[in-house]
Specification:
mainly alpha
Length: 88
């Protein structure tokens, strides 16, 4: 890692993702998303947009681990490229 602060940032997220509580949260949110995604329960267009917002937030939390891993891999790839360019 370029920076100790950034390394700590990713380590903290890894600790979070390894926590049983986070896994339960993601599971509960996925179950809730199925209920929220019901068109039949939507009262009107405002409710539909509200549900759309809820689903967007739930999706961000559910996909957070993959997003953080992708960001970390991207930084590591950049570092590897920079190191290989410096060595050449």
């Amino acid at each position: 890692m370029i920076d100790k602060e950034l390394e700590q940032y990713y380590n903290t997220y890894r600790d979070l993702f390894a926590n049983a509580g986070f896994k339960l949260l993601v599971q509960d949110l996925a179950n809730n998303a199925n209920v929220i995604n019901s068109v039949e329960a939507t009262k009107d267009s405002n409710d539909m947009y509200f549900r759309k917002g809820q689903l967007s937030i739930i999706a961000n939390i559910i996909n957070l681990e993959a997003q953080i891993e992708a960001a970390e891999e991207s930084i590591q790839a950049e570092e590897a490229t920079e190191e290989s360019e410096e060595a050449a």
